[in-house]
Amino acid sequence: MAWSIAEVARMSGVTSRTLRHYDEIGLLPPAWIGSNGHRYYEQADLLRLQQILLMRELDVGLREIRAVLDSQADQVAVLREHHQRLLVERDRLETLARTVGRTIAELEEGKDDNDMVKINRPENLFEGFEPSRTEAEAEVQERWPAEWEQSQQALESMTAEDTERWQREVTAQMIRFAEFMVAGTPVADPAVQAEVDAHYQGVCRFWTPCADAYKGVGQTYVDDPQMRANFDKIADGLALYQRDAMVFYADARLS
């Protein structure tokens, strides 16, 4: 059985324009195109669209989504991973709902004789909130908006093959930094700084940071929980070590 683009749009809530865009970028091509020029989708395409929408709900970019879908990973395993992440997000939203409900109750019931509200435990006001960006990342975007936009455009233009190759290069470089760190090599050592220079040249493929901006990039490795976790999966303390090496490089070569 096949469904027209209009029927898929109605079922999924995704506009026909978005579905055509997904086709144009190779993310969701239709099963076939009729003699009338209309796109038609089969069950496999609907399942693929469900995965796309799940990953969009989790704030995954289109480039990353295509890389995942084109990797031919086990569909059920991928859905299980999405399901687990959705359960985590559900728990966070439930916590956030309790936070707001508790605040409403305290505002309604906690007025004193002067009609002032006293919050019993102010720290409870923020339970369940999750910052969308680190301060360091926000600072980089705020101070160098043109360069930030340039980097985002460069990332979006990468193909799935480009992304996979780049990720392999980044991982290999992180391992080399970890080997220096485990060996106790100071960040000022010429060999470490040569590796930092290679890292800086890699960043320049997307944008060209000045000394302060490059330090800001290094700080995101430490401040962003997900990025720091990626570094620390390779070696505990790696994010701090690479950040310090980048600071030394920026002061010595970019200032």
TrEMBL record:
<dbReference type="Pfam" id="PF07739">
    <property type="entry name" value="TipAS"/>
</dbReference>
<protein>
    <submittedName>
        <fullName>MerR family transcriptional regulator</fullName>
    </submittedName>
</protein>
<keyword id="KW-0010">Activator</keyword>
<dbReference type="InterPro" id="IPR012925">
    <property type="entry name" value="TipAS_dom"/>
</dbReference>
<dbReference type="InterPro" id="IPR000551">
    <property type="entry name" value="MerR-type_HTH_dom"/>
</dbReference>
<feature type="domain" description="HTH merR-type">
    <location>
        <begin position="2"/>
        <end position="71"/>
    </location>
</feature>
<dbReference type="InterPro" id="IPR047057">
    <property type="entry name" value="MerR_fam"/>
</dbReference>
<dbReference type="InterPro" id="IPR036244">
    <property type="entry name" value="TipA-like_antibiotic-bd"/>
</dbReference>
<dbReference type="GO" id="GO:0003700">
    <property type="term" value="F:DNA-binding transcription factor activity"/>
</dbReference>
<keyword id="KW-0238">DNA-binding</keyword>
<dbReference type="InterPro" id="IPR009061">
    <property type="entry name" value="DNA-bd_dom_put_sf"/>
</dbReference>
<keyword id="KW-0804">Transcription</keyword>
<dbReference type="GO" id="GO:0003677">
    <property type="term" value="F:DNA binding"/>
</dbReference>
<dbReference type="Pfam" id="PF13411">
    <property type="entry name" value="MerR_1"/>
</dbReference>
<keyword id="KW-0805">Transcription regulation</keyword>
